[in-house]
Description:
Elements lengths: L2 H25 L9 H15 L2 H14 L4 H17 L3 H13 L12 H18 L4
Amino acid sequence: MNGRENRIYLWLLSTVVVAFFGACASTTEEIPEDLNPAEYFQLAQNVVSDEGNYALAIRYYQSFIDSYPEDLQRVVIAKYEIAFLNYKQGKKDLARSQFEELLSYYDEEGASVLPRWPQVLTAKILNRIDDESLNGEE
């Protein structure tokens, strides 16, 4: 290789290395412990819409659940979002089990205070998963 080819090769190699480590850094990003409930949801939505980083969004939702387990209304929403993100990634078996767990909240005492939209959308997505399975769209 001549000098110009070496520079191009090194530039390409360094670009790939930076991109690789940048991607790794975003998945291991620390989630601040002092977030309020709305911030968890906003940050999760931002990383999905801005970066397409489903793994980090799931970590934000799970951190919310771990930090605020008594906030059942938002816990149900966070669980829906986690299951939906897994569904979007093609992890249908995992999503199915998460959606089914989510529906169990609506069978418990106190379910009347839970938002209805996660229950409705969950039922629709479970039907879609069943249809996709029947049509061989695993």
